[in-house]
Structure formats: structure tokens, C-alpha cells
Amino acid sequence: MSRLARPTSGRMIGGVCAALAGRFGTSATTMRVIFLASCLLPGPQFLLYLALWILLPSEGKAARTAW
Prior knowledge:
- The protein is an all-alpha fold.
- The chain is built from 4 helices and no strands.
- It is globular.
- The mean pLDDT is 85.
């Protein structure tokens, strides 16, 4: 598993799905399909995406942060 940071390339919107795909070893497309399918279920998926977009550092900034 790699460090959890939003990549600077391969983003669609915020890079959250691409970051999660890199972390768990799947493709970004697979992670995006899983996210879109999960949006059909009740729950705070969109709010979680926004929170991760804000909290996850960008790939260039991740080298300077402790986590």
C-alpha cells in the first residue's frame, strides 16, 4: 500500500478516488464505479468525498506533512 495522497495526474474531480485506488491497489476506474454505485445507497457518501478532498494532502504537499 502506498501513502494516502491525492495524485497530481489522473484526477477526474478532486483525486479522491484515484488516491484510494492507489492506496488499496485497484484501478481508479474501479474505485470510481464503486463510489458511484455506493451513491445509490442511503448514506453520507458525497459528504465523505468532500471531507476527504479537503483533508487529504495533494501529492506534492504530502512529502512535507507528517501523515
